[in-house]
Amino acid sequence: PALLYLYYMSILMIKRAHDIGIPGLLITLGFIACLVLAKITDIHYLNLLAVLIVFGLAIAPGAKKRNNFGPIPHKKFKPSELKINN
């Protein structure tokens, strides 16, 4: 299960990094290196660094121009417009 998680997490990070404009392989290798070094050296702060990499990718704004993942979204999300169907 851990390898499956690592595989899917890597795919998601690569796609998100490309959306931001960063080489995805570089981010993924840094994430995996943090996890492996944390396991080998027992430096648990490297696990925190891996989490910060994922968090940084999650909050970074996307590209301001069209990219391979689609057009620029023009409409801002407003929670008040959220519809809940019963």
Please name the defining characteristics of this protein.
single chain, 86 residues, mainly alpha, 3 helices, 60% helix, extended
Can you walk through the features of this model?
With 86 residues, the chain is mostly helical. It is 60% helix and 0% strand. It has three helices and no strands. The protein has helices spanning 2-20, 24-41, 45-59. Helix 1 (2-20) packs antiparallel against helix 2 and helix 2 runs antiparallel to helix 3. It is extended and about 50 Å long. The mean pLDDT is 78.
| Radius of gyration over all CA atoms, rounded | 16 Å
Profile the largest sheet: none
- Total beta strand runs: 0
Give helix % range: 55-70%
What is the tally of helical segments? 3
Residues in β-strands, percent: under 5%
For the record, give the distance between the C-alpha atoms at the N and C termini, rounded to a whole number.
Answer: 35 Å
Query: What kind of assembly state do the chains in view correspond to?
Result: single chain
Order of helix and strand elements from N to C terminus = HHH
Q: Structural class, from helix and strand content?
A: mainly alpha
**Residue-averaged pLDDT, rounded?**
78
Low-confidence runs: none
- The shape, in one word, is extended
Give me the secondary-structure topology.
Layout: H1 2-20, H2 24-41, H3 45-59
Brief summary:
This protein is mainly α and 86 residues long. The chain has three helices and no strands.
